[in-house]
Amino acid sequence: MRVTLVATYELGRQPFGLASPAAWLREAGIDVTTVDLSREPFRPEAFATDLVAFHLPMHTATRLALPLIRRVRALYPTMRLCCYGLYAPLNEPVLRGLGVAHVLGGEFEQALLEVATGGTVQMDGVTGDTSLPRLRFRAPDRSGLPALDRYASLQMPSGDRRVVGYTEASRGCKHLCRHCPVVPIYQGRFRVVPRDVVLADVRAQVDAGARHITFGDPDFFNGVGHAVAIVEAFARECPGVSYDVTIKVEHLRRHDDRLTVLRDTGCLFVVSAVESIDDAVLARLDKGHTRADFEQVVARCRQVGLTLAPTFIPFTPWTTLAGYHELLRTVDTLDLVEQVAPIQLALRLLIPRGSRLLELGRERLGVDLDPFDDGQLVYPWRHPDLRVDRLQDTVAGVVGRRLTASRSAVFDELLSLAAEQVGAPVSRRAVGARDRATVAYLNEPWYC
After folding, report:
1. Which 8-state DSSP code applies to residue 242?
2. pLDDT of 123
3. Does residue 122 belong to any structural domain of this protein?
């Protein structure tokens, strides 16, 4: 049995979504080829196997996979095709229409093994199934993947760069944010990866040259005791190696006594999906925090010496020109410009199939949705104020053109654009703040 596992894009990281199932398949004696098309060319011979499985962990990866699936189907018309990951069940009708035989959700390793060996697949095509399996996790097998130094690196304030690894200490999430793609699959559940498995994966990547590890859990503090035990062991076993995590504002408030543990064990920054500073928008998204909570977290992280890296969805059906300007002014006032990747000031709300946003209905959503677009893989929407859509296009263009510019320089241009829209004076930051040293950040800022 020969299986090809394919990744199209995993946020600039070496694909955990290939390494994890590769361990399961190889343990069963299956010949596995891994192909990461974000770093490798398309080689037709790599797809001449018994099964080709595409990992679809996010929206961008799925859109990139669609023409690739067509290409593989054209080359090998009888090939068995499988898609797995968060965005596979969400887009099942589109994938089935392309000839994909098996569609697997979040906890996919055992099911993928069953597909490969011809067994009974328990979760084929299931979204949010109540029987979400509990797996006996294996340490990922990264052999055959491009070396870590070919992926995104950590840019340090000194100008040095660190090779970055990636792992997961838990999967799923116990929260139900309306816009989150994890929710339709896991429906408020999460799964803990055993500490020894996580640490084995970390050690292997450190041995391969990693000097920084990204813990890619949707929320690292879903199981705060497990998380703290992981990073304390990490610090003992990998001295001098730094890391980053993703944690909800709500959890940063509730567990603010654990922030010093993160700092003292080598956490360089905490990503947090703030999304908006408008309490009405946060309520619609069911985020579980307020603007005041966010501001308190900013203050607390600064107090303990822990860098916060907020992410946003600034363009929603409820965004106003004044609201966007206020977002930029708030980022400025809170001295967060260096801590916010410019792409985070350009993102537009996506409404995929299965999204809890659809529960809001026309009145609360505030816009009419077009029919589902099989190419964009979303329900398209247009803002009632066309000026907001035009501003979003302009902002995205600025960010796209200025990929190598400093965060401060891009922010200044966006602030000027936003101020012009509302007829406000361009109140820029003090020169001292603009010229201060940058914080550590990954040089391929993630987005959906």
Report:
1. E
2. 60
3. no
DSSP 287-299: -S--HHHHHHHHH
Pairing status of strand 170-172 against strand 242-246: unpaired
The full length of the chain comes to: 448
Distance CA 230, CA 251 (A): 17
Full residue range of the structural domain in which residue 56 is found: 2-117
Q: Which 8-state DSSP code applies to residue 156?
A: P
Q: Please tell me whether residues 320 and 373 are part of one structural domain.
A: yes
Q: In 126-218, at which residue ranges do the beta strands (DSSP E only) sit?
A: 153-155, 161-167, 170-172, 190-192, 212-215
The b-or-e profile of 282-315 (16+ CB within 10 A means b, else e) is: bebbbbbbbbebbebbbeebeeeebbbbbbbbbb
Q: Give the pLDDT means over successive 10-residue stretches in the chain (448 positions).
A: 96 96 98 98 97 97 98 97 97 97 94 90 54 90 97 94 98 96 94 97 98 98 98 98 98 97 98 98 98 98 97 98 97 95 97 96 94 97 97 97 92 96 82 58 81
In angstroms, rounded to a whole number, what is the distance separating the alpha carbons of residues 316 and 313? Answer: 7
Q: How many helices (H) and strands (E) does the chain have?
A: 17, 14
d(CA 420, CA 26): 58
Decide if 250 contacts 282 (C-beta within 8 A): no
pLDDT on residue 128:
44
Q: Is residue 81 part of a domain?
A: yes
Residue 121 confidence (pLDDT): 74
156 shares a domain with 110: no
In tens, the pLDDT along 390-399 reads 999 999 999 9
Whether residues 96 and 154 fall in one domain: no
Burial class for 106, CB neighbours closer than 10 Å (0-12, 13-18, 19+): buried
Query: 29 and 155: one domain?
Result: no
Q: Can you give the CATH number for the domain in which 23 is found?
A: 3.40.50.280
pLDDT tens-digit series, residues 189-209 = 999 999 999 999 999 999 999
Backbone angles phi, psi at 393, to 5 degrees: -60, -45
Distance CA 248, CA 265 (A): 19
Instruction: Calculate Rg over the CA atoms of the chain.
Output: 22
- CB–CB of 334/298 below 8 Å? yes
